Amino acid sequence: MADHEDQELTQLAIDVAVGYAQIMTALRHLPIPIQLPEGLVEPKDAVIGMMRALDLLEEEPLPEGIAHSIQVACASWLNAEDLLRLQVHRPRPYRIAGAIICLLTAQTEIVNAMEWLVDHQEDGEQK
After folding, report:
1. Buried b vs exposed e over 14-51: b needs ≥16 C-beta within 10 Å?
2. Single pTM value for the model
3. 8 with 96: CB under 8 angstroms?
């Protein structure tokens, strides 16, 4: 049983890292690029970077819906990371499911924003 729980926790940590990379990529392509810490990033630094990105998003010249999608992605990732940390120290069966829901939300929203960014970069315009 413990092996299964360890595997779930390991997979969740991988999924959180992948979600971070997806958001980091999108933030780099904003009209005013936002840089998150890169490479082997400590969780604390990733959280600080994501919170900073949320603050900086307010200055981005983006349509409200796209800005909202990116904000939801960042906030959902932060929630997933919180649930991962809680699961490590105080395991509860619902935390992994909750983190997965947060990561799926983040992925959906960041894909939506990236589609808009790609469309508008190809046109040479970002409104």
Report:
1. ebbeebbebbbebbeebeeebebbeeebeeeebbebbe
2. 0.91
3. yes
User: Over the range 86-95, which residues count as b (16 or more CB within 10 Å of their CB) and which as e?
Assistant: ebeeeeeeeb
Residue 84 contacts residue 49 (beta carbons within 8 Å): no
**Dihedral pair phi/psi, residue 53, rounded to 5°:** -60, -40
- CA 103 to chain centroid: 7
pLDDT in tens, 94-127: 999 999 999 999 999 999 999 999 998 765 544 4
Check: CB of residue 30 under 8 Å from CB of residue 53: no
- Cite the DSSP H helix spans in the chain: 2-28, 43-56, 64-89, 93-122
The rounded distance, in Å, linking the Cα atoms of 75 and 81 is: 10
**How far apart, in whole angstroms, are the C-alpha atoms of residue 34 and residue 49?**
10
What count of other Cβ atoms lies within 10 Å of the Cβ of residue 116? 19
Q: Give the integer Cα–Cα distance in Å for 107 and 114.
A: 10
